[in-house]
What does this fold into?
Amino acid sequence: MIDFMLSIFSSMLSMDMRDHHDIPFALPLLMACFVGGLIGFTIIRFIGNEQKQQYAQDATAKITDAE
It folds into this structure.
């Protein structure tokens, strides 16, 4: 499994992850990918929830205005 993951990361980053000389240069790139993905996912989830709340408030305002 580790060899499979290393081959995927090696092809994505164009670095030989099995070579101990490339690993110190590749690990910050991998960490940046994972951290950026987590931050991006969190932001997208927050924006999605905020828009749902705004739509719900607009819908209730239209209902109360129509009455």
